[in-house]
Specification:
Layout: H1 7-42, H2 45-81
Helix pairs in contact: 1-2
């Protein structure tokens, strides 16, 4: 017997793995941004002010890059399952 799955099953595995990776990436990105906010408030004033200047860029990188990286890793995980 061959171990070939119908195309819809393979697509479902890839879709769920990619979606799950994106969700985990979003959670980890938000967690990393929260940790950076806490560190910026605890560290000395010059470091806190420097972080204030780049806060928007850091937020965009973490909150957009996290799900993107997670989705790619989830897709690769799904490919391993096929």
């Amino acid at each position: 017997m061959s171990d070939v799955r119908p195309p819809r099953v393979g697509f479902g595995i890839l879709a769920w793995s990619t979606t799950g990776g994106a969700i985990v990436g979003l959670i980890l990105g938000a967690l990393a941004f929260g940790i950076l906010l806490i560190l910026a408030s605890v560290l000395p004033a010059p470091v806190g002010r420097a972080f204030e200047r780049v806060r928007l860029v850091v937020a965009l990188v973490l909150l957009a890059g996290g799900p993107l990286v997670g989705a790619v890793l989830g897709f690769l995980e799904g490919r391993l399952k096929l």
